[in-house]
Design brief:
IS402-like_dom, Transposase, Transposase_6_like, mainly alpha, 5 helices, 118 residues
């Protein structure tokens, strides 16, 4: 299972993600359950996003309930983690010349024209 998780969240992605991830909330009363591992939660989110399964269909091998994964996804979304991560990835890969912008061009072949236009 560990190799599978490493495929979903490789070390380089995890390092970038840690730069934008908000600190875990403090529980003033203490106690409670131990917080689920953030990297496993991220892997579960990537799994849902890439397979198209629903939150409820999440396999138990991720070590957290689907509710926990969804809650963390919602918390991170509110904190704009995904937008920040996207920006960092663009900056990092772009600065290293690893982005091929030529594939992003739009031409008349990829734009659908309406029938009977003026």
């Amino acid at each position: 299972m560990e190799a599978f998780l490493d495929q979903l969240v490789p070390d380089e992605l995890w390092e970038l993600f840690q730069r934008v991830m908000p600190p875990p909330p403090k529980r003033p009363q203490g106690g409670g359950r131990r917080r689920a591992d953030d990297r496993l939660i991220l892997a579960a989110i990537v799994f849902v996003a890439t397979t198209g399964c629903t939150w409820r269909q999440l396999p138990p091998g991720f070590g957290a309930s689907w509710q926990t994964v969804h809650r963390r996804f919602t918390d991170w979304s509110r904190a704009r983690v995904w937008a920040k991560l996207y920006r960092i990835i663009l900056d990092e890969l772009g600065s290293r010349g690893e982005l091929d912008w030529s594939r992003c061009a739009i031409d008349s072949v990829s734009v659908r024209a309406a029938k009977g236009g003026s």
